[in-house]
Design brief:
The complex is a heterodimer.
Chain A lengths: L5 E12 L2 E7 L2 E3 L3 E5 L6 H7 L10 E9 L2 E2 L6 H7 E4 L10 H11 L5 H14 L3 H4 L12 H13 L5 E5 L7 H14 L4 E5 L3 H7 L2 E6 L2 E7 H6 L4 H7 L5
Parallel strand pairs in A: 4-9, 4-10, 7-8, 8-9
Antiparallel strand pairs in A: 1-2, 1-3, 1-5, 5-6, 10-11
Helix pairs in contact in A: 3-4, 3-6, 4-6, 6-7
Chain B lengths: L3 H33 L3 H9 L2 H21 L3 H34 L10 H22 L2 H31 L4 H33 L11
The chains are: A alpha/beta, B mainly alpha.
Amino acid sequence: MNNTQIKISTKNLNLYYGDNHAVKNINIRIEEKKVTALIGPSGCGKSTFLKTLNRMNDLIPYVRITGDVYFEDLDVYKDYDIVELRKRIGMVFQKPNPFPMSIYDNVAYGPRTHGIKAKEILDEIVKSSLEKAALWEEVKDRLKQNALGLSGGQQQRLCIARVLAVEPEVILMDEPTSALDPLATLKIEDLVHELRNNYTIIIVTHNMQQAARISDQTAFFLHGEVVEYGPTKKIFRVPEDKRTEDYITGRFG
Amino acid sequence: MTRNLFDQQLDDLHQNMLRMAGLVEESIEKTIIALKNHDVKLAEKIYRGDDLIDDLEKIIEEQCLNLIVQQQPLAKDLRTISAALKIITDMERIADHSSDIAEFTIKMAPEKYIKPLVDIPKMAECAKAMVNRAIDAYIKQDVELAATVCTADDEVDELFSLIVLELTEIMKKCPDTVGQAINLIMIAKYLERMADHATNIGEWVIYGVTGKHRKYNNKLT
């Protein structure tokens, strides 16, 4: 029962954009091979927090981070090479952002960057990644076509395939369906449901029903803090904190 | 950010819950009046007439389902609406028992009662008050008030035991009374079950507010 492993944890994590204290003293433990949803109003720090986990904030000059992020007991900011880290912790963004190249090359891009050259191996990676992303059947006859010709939902699944191609352990998703129609959204949700068997997924979403549908754990962020973190079923049925209750019932502010 | 439309819809739901509770209380009251006065006409009206309550149950059920579809309630809203769905079933059952009692009233109308009816009306009064308080607690979201409904059930149970004991004695002394005594015991049993349903309502109110089940009686789960 209780043999869940902690994949990522933070200790007194703070992030400042200049004077703006955007993420405040977060102590959170993300379970392995579970889906963790981060919810909260715009500007509450959930996306910023997500990006601290694979150091996406590194390039923003006025960002200052204190505290620690541990990925499998090693410090993300001290013990990892950033390329290695981002290979193991992949990311999918709000807007599908395929490279302006063929479907095949999009998926093969990561493995090639990591030194894989043999065509048979790349073929196999492309196929299995597209299969895992539930896109293979739709694109197998047009792998050489430009990825920008795909629909929005297909592009987002391609981006997920592109992440899967480098065999990550963790996938960070920052509102991955907010630009998609309901059907494409459901496909991504189904996919997340499938992927949870093999990957640790952390997803930022504004869609409360989506969080309720697809996640095991939910964290509610407000003003940079985690107000409540626990099993999704509990958060959406019987939240403990009044602020969580007000937010998820839409009576916030 | 507020949810004016949603809050208005919840208010409409609560108004209908109050209406249904009012009708259920009325059915208990009239049932006992009919019983006491051998009033076949009134009993027949009750026996045939819980259509109104059934209709209201359907209307409330639809309101709840619409709210789930349109507003996708979560947390307390979700619990309030699911509690409403459970509560109307209990209220409908109580009204069914009023019909059951009315049926006995019709059957026994030509007979003189073997004893003055004292404790049976008392039970009915208790059950009615419990329904009233349970719905009041639902509207006010008052856990303490709901808890008093649940504890009031003990009083009804005691009255039931008392009635059974008394009627058993009467039957022992005079076997001719057996037919009617059994009917009266059945009536008392229906009243006792009404109180159990009212207790369930109280328990649903507590769940709706706190998200936790508190069990007071295990007879009707």
